[in-house]
Specification:
9 helices; elongated; mainly alpha
Length: 196
């Protein structure tokens, strides 16, 4: 297997720095100066590796969507073919499961910037739809007689509690919050038992 090129390595380093800056300062606050400082490079290097500001933003969107898709695929792989709702909720809310909170924070920042960058909308929606589908698959397996609309609503609720926990990471919230959000997701999933 060939080694990654220096350009690929440097581009990845700069994208990682951009991800960090967007998670801290938002898309508009992640200036080229901040990204260059975080990456440990001079500002002209950014343009050399990732292009102008619009091209950098496009690369970041792809990077964030790819990272989110990798996490979704890992979740799906861990749950197929027999994962239960308990397994799903454990994986989402277990602190020991590796998770890079910058991805969700950057994702949320990109969502808030869609009005200024409408081309970001569809890739972000598509990636979130894939996440919902993983949750729905587990719920459908556990509650095959539950109405599709109710499964979708519970999927949305579980996803929202997970995203809420991820978005609170910079606060270093009390550990009890994780337990409470996990319990909320468990209660949501259990609500489907009445329809089974």
């Amino acid at each position: 297997m060939p080694r990654p090129s220096l350009k690929d390595q440097r581009s990845e380093q700069i994208l990682d720095a951009y991800l960090t800056c967007v998670s801290r300062f938002g898309l508009e606050g992640a200036t080229q100066e901040r990204v260059a400082t975080e990456a440990g490079v001079k500002r002209p290097i950014l343009r050399h590796y990732l292009g102008n500001k619009d091209e950098m933003t496009g690369a970041l969107i792809s990077h964030v969507v790819d990272r989110f898709a990798q996490a979704t695929t890992a979740l799906q792989d861990a749950l197929e073919p027999t994962g239960t709702t308990v397994d799903l909720i454990d994986l989402l809310f277990d602190k020991s499961v590796p998770n890079d909170p910058r991805v969700m924070l950057a994702y949320q920042s990109l969502v808030t910037s869609v009005a200024n960058h409408p081309s970001m909308r569809q890739p972000l929606v598509d990636s979130l739809e894939q996440f919902f589908e993983v949750i729905e698959a587990v719920l459908k397996r556990a509650f095959p007689n539950a109405p599709a609309a109710q499964i979708r609503a519970v999927s949305q609720g579980i996803s929202a509690t997970y995203v809420n926990l991820d978005s609170l990471t910079p606060l270093n919230p009390p550990e009890v919050w994780r337990a409470e959000l996990k319990q909320a997701a468990t209660i949501l999933a259990a609500s489907l038992e009445a329809t089974a």
